[in-house]
Amino acid sequence: MANPSEGKLLKRPERRRLLIQAAARAFARSGFAATNLDDVATEASVSRVLIYRHFDSKTQLYEAVLAEISDELRVATGHPDHLTANSLRALVSVAQNNPDGFRLFFRQSGQEPEFRRHADELRDAMKSTAAPYLKEAIKDPARLRWAADLIPTIAIEAVIAWLDAGTPAPDTAADTITEVVGAAVTAIAADPLRG
């Protein structure tokens, strides 16, 4: 992919940001293990030497990519103790603006044990936030844990499926995903003995 800054002298923070974006694309495509710095250099239209001026290793670059998307998600969704339907809209917005970073953060890093903690921390915050809201509707502790665990999974996987489908109906995607999550909670909350 051609770099829009090719041939331009960039300030260090701007160059670093462009390298992180190129790395997100390369890592999202192939994962950490299968991506080398030559792949990132090609994606960024720079030399490996330039990458080493900003990052000591592939691991440090990967961590920088994950940290950037983590920060983006935390800023956009608000404090993890106060996640709302607007937080889900923000999640969709981040995914739309940074699809490679979003996929990398939730899909690829989850397959890399040494980096999984990044996505797990956000998922855990979402679970912890969901549980108190669900206590009213779900009295059974096991079903409550199940619902709290399921909400982030459904939301994140629905956003990834939306990205994979080419982001159809971007104006209503967050509402649709919110309805899907709500339907799952309703189904789990339903009394299984009601018949």
UniProtKB/TrEMBL annotation:
<dbReference type="InterPro" id="IPR009057">
    <property type="entry name" value="Homeodomain-like_sf"/>
</dbReference>
<protein>
    <submittedName>
        <fullName>TetR/AcrR family transcriptional regulator</fullName>
    </submittedName>
</protein>
<feature type="domain" description="HTH tetR-type">
    <location>
        <begin position="13"/>
        <end position="73"/>
    </location>
</feature>
<feature type="DNA-binding region" description="H-T-H motif">
    <location>
        <begin position="36"/>
        <end position="55"/>
    </location>
</feature>
<dbReference type="InterPro" id="IPR050109">
    <property type="entry name" value="HTH-type_TetR-like_transc_reg"/>
</dbReference>
<dbReference type="Pfam" id="PF00440">
    <property type="entry name" value="TetR_N"/>
</dbReference>
<dbReference type="GO" id="GO:0000976">
    <property type="term" value="F:transcription cis-regulatory region binding"/>
</dbReference>
<dbReference type="InterPro" id="IPR001647">
    <property type="entry name" value="HTH_TetR"/>
</dbReference>
<keyword id="KW-0238">DNA-binding</keyword>
<dbReference type="GO" id="GO:0003700">
    <property type="term" value="F:DNA-binding transcription factor activity"/>
</dbReference>
